[in-house]
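User: My advisor, Dr. K., asked me to get a structural model of this assembly before our group meeting. I'm new to this, so sorry if the format is off. These are the inputs:
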Amino acid sequence: MKRAEPGLEEEEINESRLEELKRRFRRGALMVVLVIMAVAMLFPFFWMLWVALKEEGHAFTFDFSWAKPLFSNFASVWKNPDYPFGKFFLNSLVVATAGGAVTALMCSMGAYVFAKKDFAGKEPLFWTLLATMMVPGMVYLVPQFALVSTFRWVNTYQGMFVPHLASVWGLFLLRQYMETLPDSVIEQAKIDGAGDWRIFFTFVVPLSMPAIATVFLITFLFHWNNFLWQLVVNTPDSPLLTLPVGLALFRGQYTTEWTKLMAASAFSIVPIAIIFGFAQRFFIQGMTVGALKE
Amino acid sequence: MVSYVFLLPFLIVFGIFLAYPIFYSMWLSVNRVSWTTDLFNCFTTMKFVGFGNYLELLQDPRFWWSLLMTFYYAALCIPFSVLGSLLLAVVMNQKLQGVKFFRTAYFLPNVLDMLVVGIIWVFIYSPHYGILDRFLSSLGITYFSQTGILGNPRTAMLGVAFAVVLKGLGFGMILFLAAIQNIPTSVYEAADIDGANAGQKFWLITLPLVKPIVLFLSITGMIQALNAFAEFFAMTSGRPYAVVGGVTQGMTRVTGYYLFENWQTMRYGYTAAISFVLLLVTLGISYANARALRTR
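Assistant: The format is fine. Below is the predicted structure of the whole assembly, which you can bring to the meeting.
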């Protein structure tokens, strides 16, 4: 340790060193808070993975056996004859991708005319659409189910995603974004003789890609996690069961086989966590856009 | 003309599956499934009962209890998620290392399926063998070893609320963080000159300026509670039961879950009537919110 100069200066140095120590301590304490919260929030998911790698009957113990193949629980639920999670995964993927893609296209087309064109009844129509966002989802449960069963859409892919295609939220987000696109580009294209479809597909869609990606990802996520609706429009013997519904039925059958149950859970969680890791900007923007506008 | 062509796909789906169902649901709510007919065709052969479903609803103690449980659930979730996410945001605002990593870690649970998260928590909460009960037992707390947290009528709702709050904290944190970072640093510098300490700065500057976010989180929290279903399906199925005023009630049977139970027993007219009461409550909350924003 360096010797400080004598006199007044020494006191000053001691004081600044004390300040520095205090600051470091404070930063350390705050860091501890952040780490504890992160551990608390992510612990369930680590615990899920850890149990999924364990031996049957040892879900609650702290030992770990390397005797069995590491991923045997995953393999066994993936190919389970009664509850084939491989198929459930595929079904979820089809429903979520179709739902996300069609919603993104439909909302883009609608948003383009709301943002860049004038037509009779534009504003009242837009406000009517916005007003329906206030209606809680539960109100639609019975009538949508009645429609789906009248159309004979029970146990079909379209029954699972078509009723949720018209996303007013997506339309709103895309309209906001497309309004910021420069009119001059569109005017120039018109002068060059391009029609609305050409303008839409060669200018508006490419320029709006960040917003379109956001709508696709959030809608994909919505369908991936849309347990109640998929439970309602599938009978338990449906060949098109999705991951959450399959998981709920599987749990009814094998209540105590936690290692397999956790492996099955991972099939729903891990892909979403990976997609989130790559595209979190879109997810966070998309999910908070309503609140941050105010 | 071409504008309408662009809008057509959206409007067709919107009309069939969102606009028409509201009126169709009103019609369903004044009808009842008649049991004598073909079960797969029950929607075309329903019997008109006028306000019968609504009258039954008014006298249904289970419905009123479920509404009470919904408000209880909201009263547990909202304050803790507001305080928790505000705390996270204030700490995250201190320019520490690894903020990016923590941001990702905190937000991640928001995008994961509520049903799956609920099932994992059932495992963690398991009585006697579960990791949480083992931890508590090692501290000498054996209160939960018999029934588990989710099996105890006093703590079941707390257990569900804890899991759900923890899952959602990152969402509020992002909103608060954005609001805090919007406050100009000059405001805080001025407060420094006036000799304000950290606590005063928080109470007198930060808190008033993030009030809109608190309001927003309260409203969305309330609406989430009114629509809550998957967490209760995964964790409690409305149980445990206890006798309240001579009626056996589910201690976690919120309205969303009660609605599902009625759907399951094919009481479609009654289910539609319940959903309209939910709509009324939601509109009431939105109206109160609009008024609060105007007087602000």
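One thing worth pointing out at the meeting: Chain B touches chain A through 89 residues (CB under 8 Å).

User: Perfect, thanks a lot.
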